[in-house]
Amino acid sequence: xxxxxxxxxxxxxxxxxxxxxxxxxxxxxxxxxxxxxxxxxxxxxxxxxxxxxxxxxxxxxxxxxxxxxxxxxxxxxxxxxxxxxxxxxxxxxxxxxxxxxxxxxxxxxxxxxxxxxxxxxxxxxxxxxxxxxxxxxxxxxxxxxxxxxxxxxxxxxxxxxxxxxxxxxxxxxxxxxxxxxxxxxxxxxxxxxxxxxxxxxxxxxxxxxxxxxxxxxxxxxxxxxxx
Length: 227
What we know:
Oligomer: single chain
Number of strands: 0
Strand content: under 5%
Number of domains: 1
Mean pLDDT: 90
Low-confidence stretches: none
Shape: elongated
Number of helices: 8
Order of helices and strands: HHHHHHHH
């Protein structure tokens, strides 16, 4: 296992960045569609997606923790590979938004339009007196689908970080959730104003740094054991 100080810092930062980036997309989508879809549909979709993400985290976390009973090298190698994979994803996002001129705002607007359109089709274009889509489990599914997708990715990173230090992983995740809630309480425009390429670059560098550290540590431990 890697040094304690590095493990604590890595677990906190990995969790913080994972929740901040994946959670910000869910928050933006929710706030952008809440007037058309309705508060209950959005909240139910987010709640169900969040619950599914927690279950995913617990399952994957247990799988990673089981590696400790097998090999110290594996507990560094496999989570390290997962972290490196997501560092590639974030750095690819940085290239897309910074160098290729893709618009994060356009992406989120497209997602929002697709969610609203799916709910309109599902409800048969029926609306309430407030002009919103009626509340039902079916009408919450489009929000659930996106929340679950983003949450699944965050859960894998959290589980990988938690394999090294679960307590500081949870602290990092909680700190990021609180930050998102505070920002969303004012306006989702604040989330949109932060350059997405910058968030992806920072997250990619953080994950690349610690993913490489843990992966190399696992290799060194493996060769130390067999030597």
